[in-house]
Every structure is written in structure tokens, then in C-alpha cells.
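Reminder to self: C-alpha cells first, then the designed residues, so the page reads top to bottom the way the pipeline ran.
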């Protein structure tokens, strides 16, 4: 039987996006971001890993499910292949 890990970005008040569905409240710099890269390197889209200097091996996941709205964020900026 597989172990299930629930991984989601959220604010301290437990929101995963603003009411208008934007996500600009999540800072992409800082100490927490370096820790995120070190702990969960494969949660970043493959297209950005080289640019961000991410080369770590997958430590936690063998399958990833993504919600439609999260996928649409990528589509809006031209990413149509979110391969892990």
C-alpha cells in the first residue's frame, strides 16, 4: 500500500490563493524558498529547474496530482507541459 503525502502551498491563515484566484502572495525568494528547493526539488516544473539551479533528486513523490486551476496558472504563462 502506498503512503499518501499531502503537499500544498498555503498562507498561515490556510488560504491557497486570494479570492480572485491570484497567488502573488507567495514569495518566491527568501530562506523558505531555498528550503523548499532543497526538500522538494521535483515540485518545480522541469522547464524552470535549470534556470533556478535546481538539480536535486526526487525525495518524496512518485505520482503528483494537480488541480485544474493550478494547471491553468501555467497555461496562462505559456507552459503546457508540466512534466515532473
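Designed residues (84 positions):
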Amino acid at each position: 500500500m502506498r503512503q499518501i503525502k499531502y503537499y500544498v502551498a498555503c498562507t498561515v491563515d490556510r488560504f491557497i490563493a486570494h479570492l480572485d484566484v491570484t497567488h502573488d502572495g507567495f514569495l518566491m525568494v527568501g530562506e523558505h524558498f531555498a528550503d523548499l528547493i532543497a526538500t522538494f526539488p521535483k515540485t518545480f516544473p522541469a522547464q524552470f529547474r535549470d534556470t533556478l539551479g535546481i538539480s536535486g533528486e526526487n525525495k518524496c513523490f512518485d505520482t503528483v496530482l494537480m488541480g485544474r486551476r493550478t494547471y491553468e496558472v501555467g497555461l496562462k504563462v505559456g507552459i503546457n507541459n508540466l512534466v515532473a
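The chain is about 30% helix and 0% strand.
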